[in-house]
Amino acid sequence: MSTESRGPRRGRRALVVVLTGALACLGSWLIARSWPAPAVERATLASLAFVPLWSGLALAGLALLRRAPQRRSPRSESSRDSARSRPARPGHGRRSLFALHRSLGGTLAVVAILVFGSGVGAVLDRALASWQLRADATQAVAPASDQALDEALAELLRQHPELGAGDLALHPAGAGHPWIQADFFDSDRELVRVELDPETGAERGRGQGPLWILRELHRRLLIQPVLGELALGVVGFGLGLVLLSGLATRRWLRPRTRAATHKRAPLTMRAHQWLGLGLLPVATLWAWTGALLGLTLIIVPIVGGAAYGGDRNALMHEVLAVDRPPLDEGSATLAPTRLRELVASGACPAIREQLPDAELHRILIHHPTQASARIRVDLEGRGLLARASFTVDASGELLDCRSLPRAGIGLQSFMASVALHYGEWDTPGLSRRVVDGAYLLLGAGLVALAWLGGCLLARRRARDGDARGALYLRRTLSCAGLGLAALVVGLALLSRIPGLARSEPAALLSAGLISGAVVLWMFTGDLSSRRRGLLFALAIGLGLIPLLGYFVADVAPTSVDVLAALAGIGLGLLGRRS
């Protein structure tokens, strides 16, 4: 396609996407408005339908999009009109989707590596929470009803009096983090994470492990949350289009098979196609749920206006069990609803009947010293739908009691999709560690899928004579992929230094220095030698992790340190072969 026609064609594609997005908004509004079900079901079903509906309409519109006439030799108006009225050739839709897959996939290849790679880092951050902060992961933890929850709340209110009229989240100690974790916003509206002893309630430390940077990169691109989440929502929608349009490249979906004498596709292309086919369900699920979470600024007003008449508070209460009454400055005490007693009693007996194995997951406290206080207790069992919550006021009166297994299909599907996206679930046959391991492998596979797609685009550019563009793309792909690996290794090394393991400024500075060094290293000199040198650097860094932990942090090696050492040996051998 010529340069003159490429720009108009991209403009037409963008127009199709915008128009189909408007149609998807209308369709979601109609579902939330007219579906014969309660308001909460209409709102959740409309929310879940928005991204798939938009994707389907966009793919259909792009498949039917006719190619604009190219500016070659002048011709008469009658010939142009006849060309426009001529029916599309067989296979036009497949070729249009294949062109979309190649162009949009090439644009988002590096972004996909960053998104999927940082998602792997987010899972690592959750799985290695205790390892990052040098806590003893084997420490025995008492049941939540025996932990010093009330003493922890009193300690936090003593240190932060502004919390008396604010919000606080308490996570009881568990196997992955043998401490009570408190999350809240201080007087400067900065997120604070405090760890408290489960036996005494005293503060043990502040801050979080350095890998939090990858988690926040995945959630909001390390920028202002509204802009970052919206941008990631658009990226998730685009990745969904790339994944589904990739089906048009498969041979069995083509109207005519290739001749038997046609040259066999190169290994990179076959690996990309088969890996994409195998990962398509989970990749599409992650892309669509990520778009759902990121595009809440668009989805919530639509479903809220249609299902609840614009009453956002009712929407948040029925869908997310969020109850935020206005501040009542009258003093109150939480003594009638002591947290430990509240957890032990289980104010809602119906939950114990439906989910007998449910355990305390989180306590959300709203205005703890005011008359408008609310306490919501979240419980989780084993399985996607094994979730429940109940809410009490400052006097201990039960205000709300809900169990997800008894909810409608809309709310169940909505909550299950969120749990599947984050991987915060387990089943009787799969423990949380097995789920985390599966998510790590699948995320790494998606990084490889995006990298292979970028390599195919670079090969095409080189074949078309754009050697400089091909080299630049290869450097960018290597910088994104190996740079994320270097970031993980560097932050893991930082977590082995006692004075810096909880320092968020030190983590940000280290991430910036590592990223800058990788960019300078990869974009100067011979690409092959730069890749080899970075692989050796990663191998050395992984080998230093157990050494720093043992000699500097005085931590006995764990299975994580052994895996790091083995991975370092593997990368060293790979760098030597390359």
From TrEMBL:
InterPro entries: PepSY-ass_TM
Domain of life: Bacteria
Residue stretches spanning the membrane: 12-32, 44-65, 104-124, 230-253, 274-303, 438-458, 479-499, 505-523, 535-553, 559-575
Coiled coil: none
Keyword Protein biosynthesis in record: no
Presence of the UniProt keyword Transmembrane helix in the record: yes
Basic and acidic residues: compositionally biased ranges: 74-84
Residue segments, region Disordered: 70-93
Key words, A-Z: Membrane, Transmembrane, Transmembrane helix
Pfam families in UniProt: PepSY_TM (PF03929)
Cross-referenced PANTHER family: BLL7967 PROTEIN, IRON-REGULATED INNER MEMBRANE PROTEIN-RELATED
Protein name in the entry: PepSY-associated TM helix
